[in-house]
Amino acid sequence: MYNCRIAPLDEIRYLKDPGIRAAEATAELRHRVERMLLDIEQGGLEAVRRWSMELDGWNPESFVVGPAECARAAEQLDDRLRERIAFAQEQVRAFARAQRATMTDLTVEPLPGVVLGHRHIPVGSVGAYVPGGRYPMLASSFMTVVVAKVAGVENVVACAPPQREGSIHPAMLYAMATSGADAIVCLGGVQALAALAFGLIEDLPAVDMLVGAGNAYVAEAKRQLFGRVGIDLLAGPTEILVVADDSADPRLVAADVLGQAEHGPTSAAGVIAIGEHVARAVSDEIDGLLETWPTAEIAGQAWREHGWIAIAQDDQEAISLADDAASEHLEIQVQEDKLDRYLGQLRNYGSLFLGEQATVAYGDKAVGTNHVLPTSRAARYTGGLWVGKFLKTCTWQRLTEEGTRAVAPAVEAICEAEQMAGHGLTATMRLQRIDA
Fold this sequence. Notes:
It is a single chain. This protein folds into three domains: 13-22 and 236-368, Nitrogenase molybdenum iron protein domain (Rossmann fold, 3-Layer(aba) Sandwich), CATH 3.40.50.1980; 27-231, Rossmann fold; 400-435, no CATH class. Strand 12 (329-333), helix 12 and strand 13 form a beta-alpha-beta unit. It starts with 12 loop residues before the first strand and ends with a helix. A six-stranded mixed beta sheet has the order 1-11-10-9-12-13, sandwiched between helices. A five-stranded parallel beta sheet has the order 6-5-4-7-8, sandwiched between helices. The protein contains 15 helices and 14 strands. It is α/β, with parallel strands linked by helices.
């Protein structure tokens, strides 16, 4: 990951400059993860246990969480929370099903005797990592496990780190189980991803794909394991960017900024204000809210060190600045009649939140869209996790003799020009058989 400073379009006016965001994966971190992965690959389950004990003080008889423990976790939650979890799961499930319905298999006949097509085939097995460091992350299970099951993934192994007291936080465990996980593993960090990728946990087979967010070590482990397994994307510290004009409530803008900033002290929060008076109003509200904000220690540090406010002259400049920032979460709090313009013209964002009522927290937890999204300007070239990420689009072809007559001459000529005589012969031999 490289310098994440927003590149200037011409000359950006800042009320508060974003400064430089340090690279997430230092050489030391990369080397440590590489050493851990090699040790675990060579040492197997014994090495997994050693690293788990060293880093988390956790070395149970079995890392797999059984049905009885899941049932005890459910008993610790009140009915209201269970109902709210079910609501959020159904929102995510319904949206994923609607997305899946747009992805249809294809069969076409471009030439007589030539039939081409593709199928959307689910990945066989997925390891879904659910982070649980600073906060117990319930919604991460919805975004990874629920969506994978909608895609048709046969085997989803959910994985989360232990609490200090041992085992997985009860609400997290309940969310993982009710999201449809086929197995649940209590194991954290690099050792968890390695164990899933190498197939080291009891009778659980190695997974084909790893998904889910995590800290810098988790992200680096995914990067180094990519190729051996598939991954969703490489996600760094969370980001929010709010575009606001003078119709926006500066207090709501400030609250949304600080709401995301509480993820951690390296979280990046930005505002593109259309007009200097809007910028100053938002800045004043952020300062005011931090006096009583419940997570001010974390959110305040993130804002001071990584927060920024840019001033745009008009909507078009705001759109250009937002596209250049390519933020993970992008809120648009402008006049209602301008929202469609922003929707139509914006190109670079992880997820877009249009209008005053669409706060990032809805997307993070329960509205239905996925919260595993690209960071560090990766939204320039990829979207976030969705049902299609769990599907392989695989092509196929079927030809008759008539199809061979149509295609083989072109294949022969191209193979001759490429000096690939063996390839050409496979076409020539078929023509000869037809004409014999």
